[in-house]
Amino acid sequence: MTHRWPDPDALELLVAVAEHGSVGAAARALDMAQPNASRTLRGLERELRLELLQRTPHGSSLTPEGALVVTWARAVLGQAQTLVDGVALLRRERTARVAVAATPLIAEHLLPMWVAELRSTARARAPQWYRSGAPKDTPAFTAAGEVEVDLTVADSGQVLYLVSHGEVSLGFTEEPARAAGLEVLTFGTEGLVVAVAPHHRWARRESPVSAAEVARTPLVLQSTDASTRRVVDRALAAYDPVSPRQEYASAAAVLAAVAAGIAPGVVGSLDAAGWIRTGRVTTVAVADLALSRPLQVAWPKGGRPPDLAGELLGIALAHARRYAAPGRMG
């Protein structure tokens, strides 16, 4: 004969009666209305076909049978909590997380491929870790399940703030960074390019454009709070540059203006790559002008970042070595 399991909530209420001395006190402890508590306990008695409480005008107390059921109920509830805690632990182990902050450029163009490789590597190695019987508190077991990256996109200053305050494990930025308490590593360099519309006269030149010509030309540039703009301003400062033709908040807007023929512009090679591939803009060589910015990663001092953060850092460095070339990063 199959018996239905008693309602765990009803058992918890019965245990609370034993611990608090009355139905009313038990109901308050469990944030339950007393009439509902009384109905729940009567339902448990009907289900078990036992009298669990001795009810009098002055209150209710456990019967001998009720006291024995309480003893068993405590054991059942303890095992149920073990089940709940164990399932939660399995979820945490199978879904490992790492918090990362990055500037928009790196978040858009580089991080997606790094994260894809991190997840692929974790999935590929999972079976052997499970077979090996590795302790479940090792990084190997943790990374054996799904990997989630909690990404915050911010400017360089905010990225470093998040790392230094322990809110993220890694921070990626494309500006020279120094911060107390942080390790900062340059893992690559992104070249900036002078872009023009395909019909622009510079696109037909066989010789490079000079830095002085660039400085004399009103350009379309990002606003002064963008790292690209700061690189351009520093590089052209010695040539007494004219004011920009137009300023935009994003590299995409600069590229759209360039493609429309408004004026030449300077953007990062990562932002320009798609526009160049589709022929909407082209790049021109510039003599005697170095336009580049470092790609850097920061983490708290104390050695290489552990676990998933360390794996993600390793993947970023491997990609940097694989694609190291002037004006290119991937």
Structure description:
The chain folds into three domains: 8-92, Winged helix-like DNA-binding domain superfamily/Winged helix DNA-binding domain (Arc Repressor Mutant, subunit A, Orthogonal Bundle); 96-186 and 295-322, Periplasmic binding protein-like II (D-Maltodextrin-Binding Protein, domain 2, 3-Layer(aba) Sandwich), CATH 3.40.190.10; 189-293, D-Maltodextrin-Binding Protein, domain 2. The protein has 13 helices and 13 strands. It has helices at 8-20, 23-29, 34-48, 64-94, 104-109, 111-132, 139-142, 156-164, 211-216, 227-236, 251-259, 269-277, 307-322, and strands spanning 53-56, 59-62, 95-102, 146-153, 170-173, 182-196, 209-210, 220-222, 246-248, 265-268, 282-284, 286-287, 292-300. The strands form four sheets. Strands 3, 4, 5, 6, 10, 11 and 13 form a seven-stranded mixed beta sheet that branches. α1 (8-20) crosses α4. It is rod-shaped. The protein starts with 7 loop residues before the first helix and ends in an 8-residue tail after the last helix. Mean pLDDT is 85; it is low at 127-144 and 324-330.
Topology:
Blueprint: H1 8-20, H2 23-29, H3 34-48, E1 53-56, E2 59-62, H4 64-94, E3 95-102, H5 104-109, H6 111-132, H7 139-142, E4 146-153, H8 156-164, E5 170-173, E6 182-196, E7 209-210, H9 211-216, E8 220-222, H10 227-236, E9 246-248, H11 251-259, E10 265-268, H12 269-277, E11 282-284, E12 286-287, E13 292-300, H13 307-322
Parallel strand pairs: 3-4, 3-5, 7-12, 8-9
Antiparallel strand pairs: 1-2, 5-13, 6-10, 6-11, 6-13
Helix pairs in contact: 1-2, 1-3, 1-4, 2-3, 6-13
